[in-house]
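The protein record filed below.
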Amino acid sequence: MPSLESIAVKQYLKAYAASQPAGFNLEASRKGLEMLASLTPIAPDVKVEKTTVEGIPAEWVAAPNAVEDRVFLYLHGGAYILGNCNTHRGIAAKLSRSTSSKVLLPEYRLAPENPFPAAIEDAVQAYHWLVSSGYKPEQIIIGGDSAGGGLTLSTLLSLKESGDELPALTVLISPWTDLEGTGESMETRADADPWLKSEASRATPVLYIGDLDRRTPLVSPIYANLEGLPPMLVHVGNDEILLSDSVRLVDRACAAGVEVSFKVWEDMWHVFHTFEIPEANQAIDEIGEFVNQKFKVNV
């Protein structure tokens, strides 16, 4: 059974979604995401330090238990058109504590001002910057939520193509892997999803990729050759329209020989990890267990 807290949040999200005016307003959507994020401030013991990564604004987010020789490169979600450090500092703080890692949270360039492949270029640059700063690939975790999950995969594919040594682990939270929107859950979970709408999810990619084929592997990674990618953990909610994006990704990754840990969370929605509910705490803890087990660290 879902917790009372999660039921309350789901009702709030439904009411919030219903209150939004018809049509799409980019500036209003950006401000709305920041408003939602402001409802969950970070713990006071988490250290936040602003920095730049080859000209890209970013933040270091570190819980007190973060070890110096491990870093989590976290790529935020927001359909490639929304999101920044303000909107994702909270989940970065949670992940820092659970994974005992310093989190680097870059503000990669957003569309439509900077369309494809700007986000990928910035994410690749952030990874190269970490390596040039002294972090070894085996000390780096890479991950993200929603579009940030898709961007994580596109970054790994780009690094693989260029012959770079890949990070140790991948963490994907409700990854957006099919910008064409062909997954069956776009219809079967449409009524259950309290937040995302199928029509909007199929309409917004044009702001990022224009007329580019939506099956381009760096756009929709479910069409990519995933062979050789690092071990990955994938979390997704059972009540979200992007459920099929995760299911099909996991099927293709397993078929390509990638080590995958996959969990579908009952009664949960898109990137529920960001909210202050028991299920989110459990999910964040499980991500920490996955990471620390791979690094063979007891916490």
Notes: The chain has one domain: 4-17+68-294.
